[in-house]
Amino acid sequence: MVVKQRKFSKLRQAHHREKAEDYVEMIQELLGKQGEARLTDIAKQFGVSTVTAHKIVARLQRERLIASKPYRALFLTSKGKKMATQSKHRHEIVYRFLRSLGVPENVAQVDAEGIEHHVSPKTLSIFQRFLKRNVNRNQPLSPD
């Protein structure tokens, strides 16, 4: 029973972290593309209301991942930048791994978005080793 409780506790933590990672990644992307990340832009990107986005942003501010000034754009703190960079890095590894197996680009992009938040460091390390060993082959396995 204790093992099962730990498993579900880890899963709940991963879901909590997933939303934070998605938001800080989006803020980083918007800052890079537009020079600013506004709440309305974030809500639009995620297809949610500004009220929903505001609730998540408020939580991320409490967690010191993002900062803002009244009526100004959002910015990442150093902690938020680190989270965004790490999440993007995990996404790239998972995406490249899936592509190396022959997963179509559009499917790999969507699947990597979900997997990146739940993959363990051990599994990610194995994905990286696989990619390093097979990088010269550059020939994805053909999908069935």
List the helices and strands and how they pair.
Layout: H1 2-34, H2 39-46, H3 50-62, E1 66-68, E2 74-76, H4 78-100, H5 105-115, H6 121-134
Antiparallel strand pairs: 1-2
CATH class term of the largest domain:
Mainly Alpha
Strand arrangement across the biggest beta sheet:
1-2
User: What helical percentage do the residues reach?
Assistant: over 70%
Instruction: Give the uncertain stretches in residue-range form.
Output: none
Main beta sheet, described?
Answer: 2 strands, antiparallel
Series of secondary-structure elements, N-terminal to C-terminal: HHHEEHHH
Nearest-angstrom radius of gyration?
17 Å
The share of residues in extended strands comes to: under 5%
CATH superfamily name of the largest domain?
Answer: Winged helix-like DNA-binding domain superfamily/Winged helix DNA-binding domain
Overall SS class: mainly alpha
The overall pLDDT average reads 87
CATH fold-level name of the largest domain: Arc Repressor Mutant, subunit A
Distance between the termini: 39 Å
Known CATH architecture of the largest domain: Orthogonal Bundle
Number of discrete helical segments: 6
